[in-house]
């Protein structure tokens, strides 16, 4: 396409809230054969809310929430925000924590009032040798409802399961259908557990997904698909999506996402809607068709 037609295309896309940072990305967009979508904040709203607290070795929900929220006040993860917000809504006071540590793709730990606190997924509990007993069944049941269950341990003992739900954006399903109607292979990628991922993918109309993907492995997934001969689009919002966004043939960032994601992407979806993907592809096709 000529520079003039690319300029026109960039302008057209902007009207649809799709910000194109380089003309080459606009030309490549129509050739995308596989689109990777991050789950949290991309397909879903990204603002999870606490739905369930199941007590294991703990006396009451308030104490559990107080300790868990105090621990999570050290984290900026969307899951952490959900826990902190839930405590604040109930006027639960946060306690001072020490030695906070985030374990990527697994969870967080800290000490509080002389107690060792641990919060995260089953991998984290296995790593720290916390016995989950029969509670894995409870967690699985929550995950089947598309909720994300997390384990909370105090001094090496399971205290509770706290689950959050993060609804799918109202127009994600129709936007994904549009991509599939364009013959694009749609794949969901997430750090979340397999059961939750399966439930969300199923709701979203996606048959292919990869769960429990560590941040550093998201970019590897892009490369794997490229090696299979796919022209890969990647859409994400998080810091952990940035390397994959940069490596993809076309990287799309959610406009409400992190700055790092936006800077690593070629195209930003200002409205946060996944319809921006099919819009960008349509403009790309028109650009290449009109002037060759
Ligand atoms: P994603 O953002 O796709 O869920 P992450 O790699 O950030 O992927 O997280 C993977 C999993 O690790 C989460 O689903 C959760 O179980 C656990 N985890 C990560 N950060 C936290 C946190 N701050 N608190 C509790 N659990 C966490
Ligand atoms: Mg995300």
TrEMBL record:
Subcellular location per the Swiss-Prot or TrEMBL entry: Cell membrane
Family the UniProt entry places it in: Belongs to the cation transport ATPase (P-type) (TC 3.A.3) family. Type IB subfamily.
Record protein name field: Copper-exporting P-type ATPase
Lineage: Bacteria, Pseudomonadati, Pseudomonadota, Gammaproteobacteria, Alteromonadales
Residues of the full protein shown: 396 to 687 of 747
């Amino acid at each position: 396409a000529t520079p003039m037609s690319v300029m026109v295309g960039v302008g057209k896309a902007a009207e649809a809230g799709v910000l194109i940072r380089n003309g080459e990305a606009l030309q490549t967009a129509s050739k995308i054969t596989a689109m990777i979508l991050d789950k949290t904040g991309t397909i879903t709203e990204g603002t999870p809310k606490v739905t369930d607290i199941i007590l294991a070795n703990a006396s009451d929900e308030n104490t559990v929430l107080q300790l868990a929220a105090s621990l999570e006040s050290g984290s900026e993860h969307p899951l952490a925000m959900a826990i902190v917000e839930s405590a604040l809504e109930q006027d639960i006071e946060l306690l001072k924590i020490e030695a906070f540590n985030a374990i990527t793709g697994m969870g967080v730990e800290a000490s509080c009032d002389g107690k060792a606190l641990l919060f995260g997924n089953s991998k984290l509990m296995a790593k720290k040798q916390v016995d989950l007993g029969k509670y894995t069944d409870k967690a699985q049941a929550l995950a089947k409802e598309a909720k994300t269950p997390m384990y909370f341990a105090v001094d090496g003992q399971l205290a509770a399961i706290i689950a959050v739900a993060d609804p799918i954006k109202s127009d994600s399903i129709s936007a994904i259908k549009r991509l599939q109607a364009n013959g694009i292979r749609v794949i969901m990628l997430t750090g979340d557990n397999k059961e939750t991922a399966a439930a969300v993918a199923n709701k979203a109309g996606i048959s292919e997904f990869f769960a429990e993907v560590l941040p550093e492995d998201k970019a590897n997934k892009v490369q794997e698909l490229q090696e299979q001969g796919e022209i890969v689009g990647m859409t994400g919002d998080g810091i952990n999506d940035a390397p994959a966004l940069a490596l993809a043939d076309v990287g799309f960032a959610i406009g409400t996402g992190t700055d790092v994601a936006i800077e690593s992407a070629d195209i930003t979806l200002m409205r946060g809607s996944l319809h921006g993907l099919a819009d960008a592809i349509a403009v790309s096709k028109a650009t290449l068709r009109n002037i060759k």
